[in-house]
Amino acid sequence: MAAKKRAVVLLSGGLDSTTTLAIAKTEGFDVYALSFDYDQRHRTELDHARRIATALGAKKHRVITIDPAVVAGSALTDTIAVPKSRSEQEMSVEIPVTYVPARNTIFLAHALGWSEVIGANDLFIGVNAIDYSGYPDCRPEFIAAFERMANLATKAGVGGADFTIHTPLIKLTKAEIISKAQSLGVDLSLTHSCYDPTPDGLACGQCDSCRLRLKGFKEAGLTDPIAYA
Prior knowledge:
About 35% of the residues lie in helices and about 10% in strands. It is of the alpha/beta class. The chain has a single domain, classed as HUPs (Rossmann fold, 3-Layer(aba) Sandwich).
């Protein structure tokens, strides 16, 4: 019996990355989950990521520590207030203060390095260009550019490995992502999406991420299984 292909999956512990990991598993990959600790305001997500990696059968799960000074100046990494109760129009007008400098570029660079180490040609990331808050590193053109770079800047790529960056959620609404997770049997009560949770880990319900999540569940005709403050 031939060994399964390996894939590195970026796993934050949120709804999108969890669904992405489940999709990679369904597509027949042995998944290697990668999370990041950058002293983010919502680092409780890392506990969720660990539970999700175990529940969904990741072969390995690594948590990489990044110096928070490298990604400072964001509401997620600094003392800047997290925006609350914004409308969808307000979310889409400009890049929000929750933008973390070059986050997906940094995360994908680590994923690319690990991919080369373990002999994986496939990387999965749960970026979304429909129901999102205006982050430039969630756009299809960014993913395409990074994939080109990966194949130019690595020994494996130059040798013909052909790295592929998979973005299975990029054209889905949040409701469609939730429905997809349901169809795959994902336990969404394990996930965490809030940018500004309470000290005991409850979601605030008012930040952009919470509002998009709640809107998605409503449109999918489902009840969000997590607790809110």
